[in-house]
Structures are given as C-alpha cells and as structure tokens.
Design brief:
The protein is α/β, with parallel strands linked by helices. The chain has 16 helices and 20 strands. The structure holds alpha-D-glucopyranose (GLC).
Length: 561
C-alpha cells in the first residue's frame, strides 16, 4: 500500500526566499546561482523538495509577487540558463523544485495591464476587473482602497498593492493564458506549484461591501473573494487541462479558508489541489487590531486548530501542509517558541518535533533549521516590506499609536522578520553577500549561523535532519491516524499517530518549566523505543515523564495483543 503513496506525501519541503538566501555575485541580492552553490547544504539536511518564492521578472513592489513577465527570470536573480542549471543539479541530487504561481494578479507593468488600461476597447481590457464607479468599501491588503482610478479605463480592482491589479478569471482567455504559463514551466521539468492566494481568484459578481474589522480604514474583501462562486470550477479546469498530465505536487495558499471549506480543494476525488496552506493557527495571536498584536498563542487554541485540520483532512482524504513560518510570518521560534537563551535551541527543536510528526507535508522556512529569530530592527528605516511601511503609517497616523509601540508590534509580526538574509557564518553580513545586503542582517548572526550549526552535533540542524530521516524511514509518520491526548492541558501538547500494529506517542512541553507529565492509561505499550528527543529522555516509554523546559520526545509503541 505504501508503494502507492504519492511522493509528496512522504516529502519534506524547504522554502527558499531567493532574494535572501545566498548572493553569488556580490550585488546584495540572493540569486539562483547562490541557491545552486548551496544545494549540497540542502542535500545534507535531507529535504526532498524546494519551494522557490517568485523568481520571475518583476518591478519588486512586493518582492516578486508583482510579475511583469511570467516566462522570464528576474534579472536580479539570474537568467533562464541559471534556472535550467539549478533545476538540473537539484534533480541530480534527488531534490525536486516547485515554483510560486502568482496569478490572482499581475504587476501593473505586465504588458497585459499596460494594454488593458489604454481603454475599454482594448483587447486586454477584459483581462482585469474594471468598474465605472467604485462598487464597494473594500480596502487593499497593503493600505488604501482596493480600487484605483485610471482615466482612460475607469476603476480597477487590486486586492494587494495598486501595482498588483487583479486578473479577471471570468474571462476564458485569462484562464487559457494561465494554462500556458503552467505548461511552459512544467515542460521544463519542474515538480509543481505553490499557488499564491489561489482561493481568491473568483469574485462575487455582486461585489458586496465587507465588514470593517480589526479597526481598519476599509471593509474586508474576503466575504466577496474567498472561495468565490467559480473557484472550484476554475481549479478543476486547470487540473483537467494541465496539472493532471504531470507527476507534480500543488499547494494552494488559502487565506480565510476553514478546514471544512478546504476539504473540497484537497479531497483526492475532486482533482483540484493536493493541499492548501491555511492560516487558522496564524490567527490565534491576533487582537482587535489584527495581526499586529502582542498576544501569544494559547496552547489549547493551537491544539484545537491543528486537531481540526488533522481530522478533517484525514476524513475527506485530503492532505495537510504543515508549517510554523514562511516569508509572510514572524520567525517560528520567536512566535511559537522562546527565542531567549537558554531556551532558543530547545524550543525550536520542540516545535519541529510537534509539527513534523503530524500527518501532512512539513514545510521548513529557510533558517528555521538554525533557529533564526525575528529581526529586532530598531528603526522604521530598516524595514523594506510594503506591508510594514503601510502598517507603520496607518498605526501612527490614523490609529494614534506611538512610533515606539508600532515598532514593537512590527518587531513581533512584520514579514521582514522572515526576510533577513540567511545566516551562513560569522563573517561580515553573515556570509550572505560580499556587497551591501538589500535588507539588514540579523545582529545575532555571529552566534546563530550554518557554520556553527554544522559544527555542533547537538544543533537544531541535525535535529531537523533526524526528523526528516524518520519521516523517510517510518510509514507511520505518513499514514498513522492522529489522536489528540489531554486536550485541556495548557502546557503540554501530546498526541498519538496510530497505525495497525504500532503507535507513535509525541509529546512537547510548551513552557519554560519542568513538568512531571502523566500519560493517560489508555496509552499502552508492551515494547517501546525512543525515536527522538531534545533532552535526555528515557530510552523506553515511561508513563510519568519528567519533561524539561521545552522538552519533546517521540516514542514508538507496540501495543499489547
Ligand atoms: C501572498 C504572498 C505574499 C504576497 C501576497 C500578494 O500572501 O505570500 O507574500 O504579498 O500573496 O501576492
């Protein structure tokens, strides 16, 4: 049975933010040749797949999520030859590559848009969404209204920056163009796509007002965009016409999508996507101002959300994508663990354990395997992200927050936290570039870097290497049925993965206290074996565990007959 399991169900994905990974030519920007140079590092870690954030030609208003040519490589990152070499060399090492597909919107510099805005008669006008008057109160993700006026062609919709006009998916020509793009890259031999905000492509034709939430200046567009009327039809068409013809994986970014709503996207008999990225666990520390809040996630809430997704995806024969962080989020250890010494390394390993033993495909965001932390920028001038700059303006000018408080919030949640350069060694600029890095390097790079991790057998890097290896070796990590233990416990996350003959017991202490933890009697073991732990845990299962601060352990249990 396991022979038939799709490869992406047994894989671990490593996400690379190319601009910040490794700069091979000294211009301060990471590039494709830089990634090539570091392939052996990724091979050593043991990951199966690389997801590259957008590498296409782009004015870089939103770091590549504004694409002006889908079939050209962004010159800062390299050339098509560089890409072909990267793909070839990765494949030679047994590493697959998936690309970011950004087709909810293009750049306003894309020729389709420069044509479209010439006027209503233009052949490309209908590639985008235009209205004669502003139809609703929607705000765009990076500030201001979601509608922008162009004299020749009226108002166009942009859910993100005004330089990112939304494509009109109702136009069959647009859908054909997207299929064309997919084919172009798939014919090159890439191994799949991460689809940017793909659940937003179909808009409610009524364009209803959205509720004004999180003390924002405008209404939310989600009610009129998330999982809109034709989204499943469009994805099934894309699957039928293109995706199904290749042995690939697809993961859709799915903002504002509950587990029940995600089921139709991922259920295997629906032929849409293999899995989605949900945000339910990312929303747990929001407050009345949304993401930019000081709250910490409550463990019982986290367990509820993760359990709901584990159960729902299992029941619908869908699949989970598992992540703590990505290029839009704070660093995992800073947000969910404890970035302060002496807990950073332990809590990073604990988080890795809890996530990697779940059912689904784990995603490691670059630097997570080193326990890289938030950026700790001290001034707004250090921030580069369009979202951070907008939040600073909005919170200080409209909401009346002090600059100090706003900077503190950005320090906790800004997307730039995840975008500081990868820390390779303790030389200048953490060995990322010989030039001036496009964004500041984290000051802790002297202590936290690849060189240091590789020299320390007890590092997070080697722990992640082992987590990955376990997934490759043990089918139960792919197939076992998840069962949450001790739901109400505020300090310990404990769960089982049940197979036919064996069970995994996974335990993680989310606090900085030692906890004497009793495993409930229903968990039985005749024989047991410790698979991995980040402290000196007993070699065989004991019902009473003395869990060190941020301690985590995984036991393989063989039940009594
Ligand atoms: C997604 C991307 C994010 C980008 C946005 C608009 O959320 O992950 O980085 O800004 O879409 O494309």
């Amino acid at each position: 049975m396991n022979n038939q399991t799709a490869w992406w169900k047994k894989s671990v994905v490593y996400q690379i933010y190319p601009k910040s990974f490794y700069d091979s030519d000294g211009d301060g920007f990471g590039d494709l040749n830089g990634i090539r140079e570091k392939l052996s590092y990724l091979e050593k870690l043991g990951v199966d797949v690389i997801w590259l954030n957008p590498i296409y030609e782009s004015p870089q208003v939103d770091n590549g999520y504004d694409i002006s040519n889908y079939k050209k490589i962004e010159p800062q990152l390299g050339t098509m030859e560089d890409f072909d070499m990267l793909l070839k060399e990765a494949h030679e090492k047994g590493i697959r590559i998936i690309l970011d597909l950004v087709v909810n919107h293009t750049s306003d510099k894309h020729p389709w848009f420069t044509e479209a805005k010439k006027g209503k008669e233009n052949l490309y006008h209908d590639y985008y969404i235009w209205k004669d008057t502003i139809p609703n109160n929607w705000g765009s993700s990076f500030g201001g209204p979601a509608w922008e006026y162009v004299e020749t062609a009226q108002y166009y919709l942009h859910l993100f920056a005004k330089e990112q006009p939304d494509l009109n998916w109702e136009n069959p020509k647009v859908r054909k163009e997207v299929q064309e793009i997919l084919r172009f890259w798939l014919e090159k031999g890439i191994d799949g796509f991460r689809m940017d905000v793909i659940t937003l492509i179909s808009k409610d034709p009524a364009y209803p007002d959205g509720p004004v939430i999180q003390n924002k200046a405008y209404g939310s567009y989600y009610a009129g965009c998330a999982s809109g009327p034709h989204v499943h039809e469009y994805l099934q068409e894309m699957n039928r016409e293109v995706l199904s013809k290749y042995d690939i994986m697809t993961v859709g970014e799915a903002p504002h999508t509950s587990a029940d709503e995600a089921a139709p996207y991922t259920a295997s008999d629906r032929h849409e996507l293999n899995m989605v990225f949900h945000f339910d666990h990312m929303h747990l520390d929001y407050d009345e101002n949304g993401k930019y809040a000081k709250n910490r996630v409550k463990l019982t809430d986290l367990k509820e959300v993760m359990t709901k997704w584990q159960d729902t995806m299992h029941e619908c024969d869908g699949w989970n994508s598992l992540y703590w962080s990505n290029h839009d989020q704070a660093r995992a250890v800073s947000r969910f663990g404890n970035e302060s010494e002496p807990y950073r390394v332990k809590s990073a390993k604990m988080l890795g354990t809890i996530l990697h033993m779940m059912q689904g495909t784990p995603y490691i965001y670059e630097g997570e395997e080193l326990g890289m932390t938030n950026a700790h920028f001290e001034s707004i001038d250090e921030y580069k992200d369009v979202e951070a700059l907008d939040i600073f303006r909005d919170f200080t000018e409209r909401k009346g927050f002090s600059e100090k408080d706003t900077l503190e919030l950005l320090g906790l949640k800004s997307r730039d936290n995840a975008r500081t350069p990868m820390q390779w060694d303790n030389t200048v600029n953490a060995g990322f570039t010989e030039g001036t890095p496009w964004i500041g390097v984290n000051k802790n790079c002297k202590e936290i870097n690849v060189e240091q991790c590789l020299a320390d057998q007890d590092s997070i890097f080697y722990y992640y290497q082992k987590l990955i290896q376990l997934r490759h070796e043990m089918p139960i990590i792919t197939d076992g049925v998840y069962e949450l233990l001790d739901k109400e416990n505020e300090s310990v996350y404990a769960y089982l993965r049940k197979g036919e003959k064996e069970t995994l017991l996974v335990v993680g202490n989310f606090t900085d206290k030692t906890i004497n933890y009793h495993i409930e009697e229903k968990v039985q073991a005749k024989k047991s074996r410790l698979l991995i732990s980040n402290y000196n845990a007993a070699e065989t299962f004991e019902r009473d565990l003395s869990l060190e601060p941020y301690g985590a352990c995984v036991y393989l249990l063989e039940a009594e007959k």
